[in-house]
From TrEMBL:
Main location, first listed in the record: membrane
Membrane topology: Multi-pass membrane protein
Name of a matching Pfam family: DUF1232
Protein name: DUF1232 domain-containing protein
Keyword Glycosyltransferase appears in the UniProt entry: no
Record-linked InterPro entries: DUF1232
Length: 123
């Protein structure tokens, strides 16, 4: 069972890199490119929207939301294109990082904090 979980995690990592490649390819349909860019940016971001130290919720994005997003985007990309992106992703040894994803996480957190401060001051 542990070996199956490790294999699943390796395939997920490969698919994230494949989505990164799909988002940059002009052959990918535009709606799939946008979705792939969003999912890959978040997955490759060095920060999580919900930090892992938050009990239960911290791992919710890693275990449920992110795999669901990857699965949905993969279904948007034609199978033959996705097979090519997966093959290229398997050859890449260094996992790319997404500073856009990091910026998105920071903007979301700053927006939440600003809204909470505004709401608290109105009370």
């Amino acid at each position: 069972m542990l070996e199956a979980a490790k294999r699943w995690a390796r395939l997920l990592k490969r698919d994230v890199v494949a989505l990164y490649l799909a988002a940059r390819s002009p052959l990918t349909p535009w709606h799939a490119r946008v979705a792939a860019a969003c999912v890959a940016a978040y997955a490759l971001s060095p920060a999580d929207l919900i930090p892992d130290f938050v009990p239960v919720l911290g791992y919710l994005d890693d275990l449920l939301i992110l795999p669901l997003g990857i699965w949905l985007v993969i279904r948007m990309i034609p199978a033959e294109l996705m097979a090519g992106f997966r093959a290229k992703a398997a050859e890449i040894t260094a996992r790319p990082r997404s500073m856009a994803g990091l910026a998105l996480v920071i903007v979301v957190w700053l927006t939440v904090l600003a809204f909470a401060g505004w709401w608290w001051l109105r009370q």
